[in-house]
Amino acid sequence: xxxxxxxxxxxxxxxxxxxxxxxxxxxxxxxxxxxxxxxxxxxxxxxxxx
Length: 50
Description:
Elements: E1 2-5, H1 18-33, E2 37-40
Parallel strand pairs: 1-2
């Protein structure tokens, strides 16, 4: 099974806060720990590391 993590960004145009990123990473980590393959969907306005 595969999990897609997505959420609702805190700001218009998809900009994310540190809390948005931390929450997505926490959910993805929990899914991975449960044995699921996991992807995180980022908006075009924000992608960590870009």
